[in-house]
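Q: Could you fold this chain for me?
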Amino acid sequence: MEILDSGLLQRALLEVVVVGATCGALGVWLLHLHHTYAAESLAHAMLPGLVVAALVGAPLLLGATGGVLAAAALIALAARDTRVGAEVAVGVTVTTAFGLGALLALAPDVPARLGELLFGDLLGTNTTDLLVAGGLAGLVALALVAGHRPLSAAVFDPLAAPSLGVRPGRVELALLALLALAIVAAVQALGNLLVLALIVAPASAGIRLGRSVGGQIALAAGVGALSGLLGLVASAELDVAAGASVALAAIALYVLATLVRPPGPRATGPRRSLVETLSG
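A: Sure. Below is the predicted structure, expressed as structure tokens.
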């Protein structure tokens, strides 16, 4: 198989498998806390940072990091605006940031390959990209393992969590910080528009199939890694875009999981929204 013979494809495969497994595991907690909107907000609002980095010739990792930090700060500020409603303010902020990034992307001096910021450049992965993505993914994975107990308390018994020494608001903020790291790690491979698929689809499949939170996390990580493998193989064999292939593979696996176990009624308790978490 070509993917086993090419060093370029081998690096791409290793990156997307590691990032896919990490994003899948993280996504389980995000879905349980109903923070899908947080993932979409941070991913889309970081576009100006990516564009600026490309324009000035800076590393995309630096632009992604700056974009995520700026997006988080803007969302936090918007969440405190009580005049128009926090959710509306956050939506306007994220849309404005994405629009600004698109406007910069259409400037005459934009590099020719800037479209890869939107859809990823998985096949352009070099050793440095691989090491950085692996390091960030490793940090996220270690944090998830270390924080399993407080996360479980914050998700499944937020009212009793304080008596166990766990503050759900702080746990959710820490989870959002891990989300930012995961997005930075994955954006090189999948781009600004497709990274959300690798966070949400494998996690949704894991939650659909798993009977315990540990099982859900393991399944989501496996689906995320498998999405990367299947997507990259499809890209190599069919000569189609790698990032889009990975995203579509993740969605296809979720659809398969839904067919295996159709949705049923789920009991869900009240959760803090992204706005409530950021505004304290």
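A (continued): Residues 28 and 266 are 15 Å apart (CA to CA).
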